[in-house]
Design a protein that fits this description.
alpha+beta
């Protein structure tokens, strides 16, 4: 019991200490209002149900002030997203759209409670995420969202992703290349949101050296929520054009602009060959 309370106390202290640094952009952003979703009066009414976040499995504390030299992400845009608060409700966080050239993946990063998470995808998964958001917007406008559907959180399928996380945006020593994102929608307080869920995954680094499960660092169970406008921000930033431009910008930053090829013109000879 003392160990649990000690962990919680440490978590709160870290969260308060770094809140200014990790959430500075979030506080300045304009809060997105929940989307209104009205249906015809003739439709069957349903009881309003409250949803609760499932408790994350109690594992070894995954927060560390150790490795401060993060792998480099190239940022190329900003947006916003909703994440759960520690004691209920939702909080809008600033999103950084990024590419991770080492794995040739693109995605986003944001604060999540007292940590910072990056979720990046290869081209195929990224395009599936964008396609799912477009489908959600279409279903919203055509009134096809069903608030009684208990499986709506997985209505748009799943995509593979790489997740990195740590205490700060610049400190993400933990990672897994086997993350799976479940895409769908959920009604919260009578408003629908596009949802992205990720189950807990073990850090590959600590798992490779662990003597037992207590030595493994686990991620949190992630639940993201997006309004229509926030979805449009993701769709606009995760295009091939912007992602590839970010890759090119990273290459120039690291290695400099490519030199132009030399042009070599040979002068035509005025001499006439002797004909035997």
């Amino acid at each position: 019991m003392k160990r649990v309370f000690g962990t919680l106390a440490a978590l709160c202290a870290v969260s308060l200490f770094f809140s200014c640094a990790s959430n500075k952009g979030s506080d300045a952003a304009v809060t997105e209002e929940a989307d209104s979703y009205e249906i015809d009066v003739s439709e069957k009414s349903v009881e309003k149900t409250s949803s609760k976040e499932k408790n994350n499995k109690k594992r070894k504390n995954s927060f560390s002030l150790g490795n401060m030299f993060a792998s480099k992400y190239q940022e190329f845009g900003e947006g916003s997203i909703y994440t759960p608060k520690t004691f209920g409700g939702r909080k809008q966080e600033l999103v950084s759209f990024v590419v991770y050239p080492k794995t040739e993946t693109a995605g986003f990063g944001s604060s999540y409670m007292a940590s910072y998470y990056y979720l990046t995808m290869d081209d195929s998964s990224r395009k599936l995420l964008v396609s799912s958001m477009n489908r959600y917007l279409k279903d919203f406008e055509e009134k096809k969202l069903d608030r009684t559907n208990k499986k709506s959180f997985k209505a748009y399928g799943k995509v593979n992703a790489i997740v990195r996380w740590g205490t700060l945006k610049a400190n993400n020593p933990y990672y897994s290349q086997d993350a799976v994102l479940t895409l769908g929608y959920k009604f919260e307080d009578n408003s629908p949101y596009f949802s992205i869920q990720m189950e807990q995954v073990p850090d590959e680094g600590s798992a490779s050296t662990a003597k037992d499960v207590n030595d493994i660092v686990f991620s949190m169970r992630l639940n993201y929520f997006l309004t229509k406008n926030q979805c449009r921000g993701f769709i606009d930033n995760l295009t091939d054009e912007k992602v590839y431009a970010a890759y090119n910008a990273y290459e120039i930053e690291q290695y400099g602009a490519p030199e132009e090829d030399d042009i070599y013109f040979e002068e035509e000879s005025d001499e006439v060959e002797d004909v035997e």
